[in-house]
């Protein structure tokens, strides 16, 4: 496998640190694939520095891991799950993944998803929805649900970590919007580029897989932030700055190893991959918005205005979980969200939370259908999402203002080189 | 009424033409209100030239007409209708419109929607959702449905033009998502600024009006377009460039008089106002996307790539409805969308179409819930939307790929000066 220029995707791929990246990358070429690239440290994977945005920005599709994991969050996103149809077998699934890979790679360069058919009057079959949008930082990231392994006779290859997530108290999961055999995450700087990619991938799946659910979200890049990394914080519809305690996997190999599958015992198709937990967390905004600001801040443990912990400092100041008021009451309440979610509280459990907000209008009961598309990446959900959610489900002060409506877990294959397709080592392994 | 700097809102409010605008505006100050401002010609109302975008861009709320009509389309939009509750009377409706006006004016400047309450620890009750978004070109535009006049004992003041739209063949309207007593259109450059404004206005309505429906849309400013005017063209989910034949009301007083209510016989509250038709037009994308490109282009009458009419030229070249192929067949088919929608075909009927695309995931039947939030502005719907839609409903080639699911008509009051509230002249008239 050729290690392609993923560094160009990451913001650090430009400027002085970008030069270092290119040198490091060249040193890696031919050095033995994704594992070597991952082992080489932050140069290739860095997420720091300023990144280009907008129509002309290209995030390379090929590389040692899939784009859309350590990539900065794009403003527009669609998440979709598809189920394999009754006639799908390993050959058809492989054909679909080959078609998806080719279309995603072309669209990420701002090209039509298919080459023009000779004699067809230049008609590529494309609808033109994304014309003028440019590459727009488009990423498409593909994953596999547990059901896919059974359906394709690959049960022995199914990783243990892909077991169903446990039931959590207060979950109110809608099966129709949970799970799925195949997962696609699309992100882009442009809404038409994003919709176009979604529609294109759905169209390519016809006859092989049927869309099970789609969720669409938005975010805003941090205003004026010099470092729009994957780990950057964004507001959510509750007004919180979300993701403050995110790891910075581009900068710390130990943290990175908690996000990406790097172990030498991992199957080749999963090396450089990850596990993604998707949860649709609806926010009960009619209640939340009526609370006094101090109540809202105590439930979270952070100030609304700047995201600083209630124990002081700025957004990036570590929270002091031991701090107490003069009357002895802890500044950060026992059930405050940041206390229960803290890696320290969860024996170091780390995830890269890279989600989007959603606003889907009114529910039949008149309440807003709004919240967070929680998307969390980790090398193993059993030591990432699960312990954290177990603790949160036992008493998070925010839980009474949210409802987990959908849940899914997917294994995300490692990246591919040109000529390869996503999951090839699994389907042909 | 003081005529405030609406010119600063319009792109033309900057640079050389902006200087002319300011001079023209100053000449108008104290000259007698909206009618005089409207009569003064394109200087105040111009929509040409390059406009600022992004977090710092402010579109003034006050002016001779409401913002959000001749304003360039912002990327994020929410449309909402509310119904007055059983206890609403004229005084409560007036209090709501006063509160909405104040909040909208403040949010358009990037301020919290309410001033801090003394003694409340600086708590404005704001959720902070829009913190960091800046003014973000936020506009909130308010309108009145026919039902409001009956509910508030204002039936004699209800304009004849606000009569229900006729039934059109093939309409499949959902009453729950049609009509409404009050209308709000929110547009912004930032998704959190837009959602925050919507939630704030809904919260202020509690006890007086209940949200009937909300629709959310997106668009993309034309890439690199030097003239992001209200009349600019944008793609839609079918891939068409939408709005090519739009009037340019900022540049042509005769066209402007078809968009804004300018007649001396208009009631004062409606002077400088408009009528807005809102239609939710779902697109049957699963069918449309499977058509060969020439079929799609013939249904529209324009090329997908650049929006040029099939009779040649560029996007802005007038269509030649008489052109025929060598075999005598018209180049623009008898049922092509642009033939049936052309002002020429409709005795000059003109609307400013200023809509947004929507993508709301999957319908229960698995089809995409996507299409166009059609938003059309005109001085009189009886000579604007109605004749055009009558003709389209009789045979538009596009109609078989679309479904009109919701419909509403609102009278939009003229703009307000500081200290006034939207609709004051109606409610206190």
TrEMBL record, chains A, B:
Specify the Dyp-type peroxidase N-terminal domain's residue ranges.
Answer: 66-218
Q: What is this protein called?
A: Dyp-type peroxidase
Q: Which family does it belong to?
A: Belongs to the DyP-type peroxidase family.
Q: What is the lineage of its organism?
A: Bacteria, Bacillati, Actinomycetota, Actinomycetes, Kitasatosporales
List each coiled-coil range: none
A GO molecular function term, named singly, is:
peroxidase activity
GO terms under cellular component? cytosol
What InterPro entries does its record include?
Answer: Dimeric_a/b-barrel, Dyp_perox_C, Dyp_perox_N, Dyp_peroxidase, TAT_signal
Origin organism is: Streptomyces vinaceus
Domain Dyp-type peroxidase C-terminal residues, every copy: 233-416
Q: Which cofactor does it need?
A: heme b
The keyword Iron-sulfur belongs to this UniProt entry's keyword annotation: no
Region Disordered, annotated ranges = 1-20, 216-252
């Amino acid at each position: 496998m050729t290690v392609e220029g993923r560094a160009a995707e990451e913001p650090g791929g430009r400027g002085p640190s970008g030069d270092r990246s290119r040198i490091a990358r060249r040193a890696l070429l031919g050095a033995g694939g994704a594992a070597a690239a991952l082992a080489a440290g932050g140069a290739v994977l860095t997420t720091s520095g300023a990144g280009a945005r907008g129509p002309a920005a290209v995030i390379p599709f090929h590389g040692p891991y899939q784009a859309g994991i350590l990539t900065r969050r794009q403003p527009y996103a669609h998440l979709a799950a598809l189920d394999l149809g009754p006639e799908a077998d390993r050959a058809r699934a492989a054909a679909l993944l080959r078609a998806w890979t080719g279309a995603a790679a072309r669209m990420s360069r701002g090209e039509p998803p298919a080459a023009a058919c000779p004699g067809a009057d230049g008609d590529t079959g494309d609808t033109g929805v994304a014309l003028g949008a440019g590459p727009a930082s488009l990423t498409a990231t593909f994953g596999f649900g547990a059901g896919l392994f059974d359906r394709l006779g690959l049960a022995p290859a199914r990783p243990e970590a892909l077991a169903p997530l446990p039931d959590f108290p207060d979950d109110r999961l809608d099966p129709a919007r949970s799970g799925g055999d195949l997962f696609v995450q699309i992100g882009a700087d442009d809404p038409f580029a994003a919709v176009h990619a979604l529609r294109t991938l759905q169209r390519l799946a016809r006859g092989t897989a049927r869309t099970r659910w789609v969720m669409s979200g938005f975010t805003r890049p941090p205003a004026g932030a010099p470092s729009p990394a994957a780990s950057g914080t964004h507001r959510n519809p509750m007004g919180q700055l979300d993701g403050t305690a995110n790891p910075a996997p581009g900068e710390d190999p130990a943290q990175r190893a908690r996000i990406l599958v790097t172990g030498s015992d991992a199957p080749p198709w999963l090396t450089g991959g990850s596990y993604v937990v998707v949860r649709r967390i609806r926010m009960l905004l009619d209640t939340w918005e009526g609370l006094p600001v101090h109540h809202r801040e105590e439930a979270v443990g952070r100030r609304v205005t700047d995201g600083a912990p209630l124990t002081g400092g700025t957004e990036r100041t570590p929270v002091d979980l031991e701090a107490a008021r003069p009357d002895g009451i802890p500044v950060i309440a026992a059930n405050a969200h940041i206390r229960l979610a803290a890696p320290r509280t969860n024996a170091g459990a780390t995830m890269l939370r890279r989600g989007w907000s959603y606003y889907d209008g009114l529910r039949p009961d008149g309440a807003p259908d709004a919240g967070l598309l929680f998307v969390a990446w980790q090398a193993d959900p059993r030591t990432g999402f699960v312990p954290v959610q177990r603790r949160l489900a036992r008493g998070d002060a925010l839980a009474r203002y949210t409802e987990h409506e959908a849940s899914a877990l997917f294994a995300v294959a490692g990246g591919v080189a040109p000529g390869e397709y996503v999951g090839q080592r699994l389907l042909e392994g």
